[in-house]
Amino acid sequence: MYSFAQVIISGSRIARNRSRKQWASIVFIFGLVTGILCAPSGVLTAQSLCYGAGCNVLPLSQTDLNSMLLSTKVQYADPLARDMSEATAVANIPTVPLGSITMNGFSVGAGADATYKPEEDVTVYIPNVGTISDLKTVGFGVNGRFQGGLNLGQILDAGRDNDPFSASRFEVWLSGLEKKHEETELDTYNTLQGKYALPPTYRASVYSRALDVRYHIFEEKGSVWLGWSGLSVLTGVHSMRQDLYYRRIDSKARINLVDNVNLLWDGIDIAEMRSRFDTYPLELQTGFRLLYVLGINLGGGMAWHKGSTNFQLTRTGLVYPESDLLSIIGINDLSTGLLLRMPGDGSAPARMAFFRAGLTLHLWAFKIDVEGMQSGNTKTVAGNIRFEMDLD
């Protein structure tokens, strides 16, 4: 760690030579940023370094940077990986809409859900170095599907009766989607020498397949104006393969060193995640009908997950001294940046309890479902639109 006298002497020398090194700094930073942002995904690496002309006066040694890397991974990257993995797994639970309880014919439609785990503030404590504050963890997941369902009694020509093993008490649902999406708006990243264009902020590739079977324990009762939808149990196999890339610019953090020197880290966060999940839900479903056009639906149960998530976090950007003393000698005019690149270790819980509720709007054969689901503190909003026809 450098003393203030060493910082002043070194900073004065650098200020005198700054014009001679300016073009070299431009080329170096542009090449480094481009290399980081365009590096191939799927390769999990760990790296910490300082780049730019002011590294020799920055009060952080390579040993300090290595300690910062390890502490940030354990206290920030790993919790972020767990939140993202859990949100993705929860998004893989809902497939069959609650509003189709005790379906007597067939249904075709499409649906999607978005999952969110609330943002949390994180402060990373680095032994003998200091802290990094103003970091945030968050989890989000998305899923979509085209789906179709059929009451087995319609295939086997089995009328509804009191036989608990009648084919008419069983439904089979198939759903799936293969979709790639990319936000096309480009941003720019400010450095002291100019602005550089960055890749899209969000890129996702989703592949999902699901097979569900629902059994009617108790049939519906009442009239179309007021009635009970019955009680059903649903189980299935849901497979999801998802690749996500997310970039956030103007992500600010504060590095508070133990010698009372504070640095502002104005950077870019890049998260890359590859998830492979198989989910096995078991759910009880029921509901009520009001005035024919409105259905109130409830469901809850357990889901078992099997799979893995590969996660990598990169944070890079310019470092500015917050101290007036360091600013006076010109360190804030130098192109000095930090890079931390680390894998995150975290996976979704193997077992999750969940509860969901929803409303269904019945417009003759067309149905619109809006649902909400919660598992722990992870929340999901889902929507479906479908054509459903009873053949009784």
Which structural traits does this protein have?
single chain; 392 residues; alpha+beta; 13-stranded antiparallel β-sheet; two-stranded antiparallel ribbon; 5 helices; 19% helix; 57% strand; disordered N terminus
Tell me about this structure.
The structure is a single chain. This protein has helices spanning 4-16, 18-37, 62-91, 152-156, 324-328; strands at 47-52, 105-126, 130-151, 170-182, 188-191, 194-197, 202-218, 221-222, 226-257, 262-290, 294-321, 336-344, 351-363, 366-375, 378-390. With 392 residues, it is α+β, with helices and mostly antiparallel strands. The chain has one domain (4-390). The strands form 2 sheets. Strands 1, 2, 3, 4, 7, 8, 9, 10, 11, 12, 13, 14 and 15 form a 13-stranded antiparallel beta sheet that branches. It is elongated, with a radius of gyration of 28 Å. The protein starts with a helix and ends with a strand.
